[in-house]
Amino acid sequence: MTTTALADSARAIVAAGKGVLAADETPRTLTQRLAARTIQSTAETRRAYREMFFTTPGISEFIGGVILQDETIHQRSSTGTPLVDLLAQEGITPGIKVDNGARPLAGSPGERVTEGLDGLRDRLVAYREMGARFAKWRAVILIGEGLPTAGCVNANAHGLARYAALCQEQGLVPIVEPEVLMDGAHTIDRSEQVTGRVLQAVFDALFEQNVSLEGMLLKPNMVIAGQDCERQASVEEVATATLRTLSRHVPPAVPAIVFLSGGQDHLLATKHLGAINQVGGPKPWKLSYSYGRALQDEALEVWDGRSENVPAGQHAFYHRAKCDSAAALGSYRTEMESEAASA
Ligand code: 13P
Asked: Which of 60, 94, 105, 307 is the most exposed place for a label (fewest CB within 10 A)?
C-alpha cells in the first residue's frame, strides 16, 4: 500500500466527527468488567456484548473505526456473519489490537514494557486477510517516585515505533498508544512533564524507524492529575495543558489524535474532549476519541447481560457516541446530555 493510501485510510477513520470504539479488551479484562456486574463471561456472552455495540442502529455516524481483539475478530454474529464483516458493511473500519500486553520490565521494578514484536509481521498479514485495516499497540507508563525511568520510556517508544513501521509495511494504519497512567497522586503539572517527555521519545523513535506520520494515528492520554491527587484540575485546565503538551511534541503531519479515556468517568471524558476542541490556539490535527470504558460503561450497566436489554444498551451507547462526536466537532454542550438521552 502506498503512503498516500495509508494516509487516506487514517483520515477516513476520523472523518467528520467520527471517532474510534476501543472494543479490544482481552477476554481476561472483559471477564473482570463483566464480573464486576455479576455477568457470566463466556465466549458467547462476550460475543453478545460486542454485537450489541456493533449493531447499534445509526452508529456509523459517530464511529469510524472499531478496535477488535483476537477472540472477536474470529467470531460470528448471532445471524452467522463474521463480526468484522458486519462492521465493514456499515462503513466502519475494523482494526485489531496486536500487542501481547505489558509485562514487567527487567531491571526496573514497578515498570512495564509492552511485548509482541516477535512474529508480528506474520500476524499482521493474517489479520489483514481477515479484514483488519488498522492496528493498535498500547504502552503504559507509570508515574511514581523516580518513575518513569528513561529506560522504560525509551524501551516502550522503541517497541511502538517498530510496531508502527511493520504495520505500514503491511498496509495497516498503526494507532500508536503511549498511555501515561492516571494511577497515583501526581499533580497535573507532573502529568504534563511526563506526557511531554514520553511523546518526544515516541516521535524520535518513529522518525528513526522511518514511520510515515501521515499514515498513523496517535492515541495519547489527556494531561490530567493522578486519580488520588487531592487537587483535581478543572476541565479548562486539562484542556489547556493537554493542547499545550501536544503542540510541543506532536508534529502537524499526524492527521489525528484520538484520546483514550484511561479510567475517567464517561461524562468527564466527553467534557474534556469538548473543551480541548473549544480552547483557542493552533490545532493542526483532528482531536477525537478512541474510548473504551467511557463509550461502553453506560451501555454495559443497562444491558446487564440480558438479551431483552440490548435495545436499551444500544440507546445508551448511541447517546454517548453522539455526545463524544459533538465534543470532537467542538459543538458539545452539557444540555445535550438530557436532549440526547430522552430522544
Ligand atoms: P479506555 O478508554 O478505557 O482507556 O480504553 C482505551 C484503550 O484502548 C486502552 O488501550
From this structure: 307
